[in-house]
Amino acid sequence: MSDEDSTESYTLLCDDPSHEVVLVDCGPREMDVILAVRKVTGQSLWHSRVLARQAPVTLLGGLSACRAQSAVAVLQSAGARAEWRQEPEPGEHAAPSP
Questions:
Q1: Nearest to residue 49, comparing CAs of 60, 59, 35?
Q2: Which pLDDT does position 17 carry in this prediction?
Q3: Which one of 39, 71, 75, 89 has the lowest number of neighbouring Cβ atoms within 10 Å?
Q4: How far is CA 13 from CA 8, 91, 94, in A?
């Protein structure tokens, strides 16, 4: 390789970073929220109940913004307090929730 040869490197950026869906609080309509958790996660009824009772808990990860918003809408329509957020980059620590 001569001095005139050069190597170029590129960093690829993803247009749509991964998002996660967090169930913050189950709310007063627990059974409706359990059924909504089951709908968005595909888990069994028993597992969905366990997840709902562990709130705050991350239900889904690696989603597009659109899919995360849709899942949050289903949970909120059942009476839950839920949010979607961008997943932290590998090696990046998530800030503690207040």
A1: 35
A2: 77
A3: 89
A4: 16, 17, 20
Q: What DSSP state is assigned to residue 78?
A: T
Distance between CA 62 and CA 17 in Å, rounded?
8
- For residue 52, with 0-12 CB atoms within 10 Å meaning exposed, 13-18 middle and 19 or more buried, which class applies? buried
**Cβ contacts of 75 within 8 Å, gap of 6 or more:** 21, 23, 33, 36, 37, 40, 59, 82
Greater confidence, 71 or 92?
A: 71
Give dist(CA 53, CA 75) in Å, integer: 14
Residue 46 has pLDDT above 90, yes or no: yes
